[in-house]
Specification:
Helices cover about 70% and strands about 0% of the residues. By secondary structure, it is mostly helical. Helix 1 packs antiparallel against helix 2 (about 25-40). The longest helix has 21 residues, at about 65-85.
Length: about 300
């Protein structure tokens, strides 16, 4: 379905249709409707022939029909990401129409907790990679509206961590965090940076205690963020997020000798940033006797 939209999207002639206010909106809705009808097939159509397939009937099938649910989940995500990446290039007059289409897909994703429930990790990685590439484009962010819709997308993608085993998806969320925070243009989208508060709220105490590899996954990425990111005042939220992460891993991870090489570069770079939140975080670790023994190489 999303492939049909991608194929036909470029066929819309914005110049030819510029005098018709609802032409683009109708064009997108027709593509969505026809595309999902092809996927669903005659046997799963709504009982009411006048009822549209998308978005409500598609959402019902995702929630209730196991045999087609995953396929529809992926189609809705693909549609959602495609619309997001096309928003910067549509004429201003039609921005709201495309944003409405983006929101139709986002609402289904949110209501059905698709990122939390989808099991195909390779597919999820491809979605995160597409979003990273979008944020890394030279002209991003084209305007504040693009930052706003991207912020909503990131917030939804991070709900992938709400699953029972967040370790399975932790690295892809950290790579997205790194892409945003080390961007030389991060000062232009501080609200997008702040969205990554969810990294700490979704990964909880019980997860860290149960799975020490969360720390081992986090540490190299955190080190790179500290080495390449900016402690500037405007994006100072990066330091606050890192401090929260350090506190969580300090409190809930059992000290081990092998962690010495992971912790020391992080603590050194926290001090190098010379801002209160990161220096405070480093001090808290080195004031803890059990972690001091670990960092001295004696373990516990």
């Amino acid at each position: 379905m999303a492939s049909l939209v991608k194929l036909k999207f470029s066929e819309f002639d914005f110049k030819k249709e510029e005098d018709e206010d609802d032409a683009f909106e109708n064009f997108l809705q027709d593509l969505e409707e026809n595309g999902f009808k092809q996927i669903i097939g005659a046997s799963d159509m709504p009982e009411d022939e006048d009822e549209k397939v998308y978005p409500r009937h598609v959402q019902d099938l995702i929630e209730k029909d196991a045999k087609i649910s995953e396929k529809l989940q992926k189609e809705v995500i693909n549609l959602f990401i495609f619309y997001l990446t096309k928003l910067p290039s549509v004429p201003e007059k039609h921005f709201d129409d495309l944003e409405s289409a983006y929101k139709r897909a986002l609402e289904i994703i949110t209501d059905c907790c698709i990122f939390k429930n989808l099991k195909d990790l390779e597919f999820l990685r491809s979605v995160f990679k597409t979003l990273q590439e979008f944020i890394s484009e030279a002209d991003f962010p084209q305007k504040k509206d693009i930052v706003d819709v991207t912020e909503k997308a990131v917030k939804e993608l991070l709900t992938v961590l709400k699953r029972n085993k967040p370790l399975d998806v932790y690295d892809m969320t950290l790579q997205l965090w790194k892409t945003v925070t080390i961007s030389p243009k991060a000062d232009k989208f501080p609200d997008l940076v702040r969205t990554f508060d969810d990294l700490t709220s979704h990964v909880k105490e019980q997860h860290i205690k149960k799975e020490p590899k969360l720390f081992e996954t986090w540490a190299p990425v955190a080190q790179e963020v500290l080495e390449k990111g900016s402690p500037s005042v405007k994006t100072g939220k990066i330091g606050i997020i890192i401090r929260s992460m350090i506190y969580d891993f300090r409190d809930y991870t059992k000290p081990q000798k092998k962690y010495e090489k992971l912790w020391i570069p992080i603590l050194v770079n926290c001090v190098k940033w010379q801002i209160p939140v990161t220096m405070e975080a480093a001090c808290r670790v080195i004031r803890d006797d059990q972690w001091v023994r670990c960092l001295n190489g004696s373990g516990r």
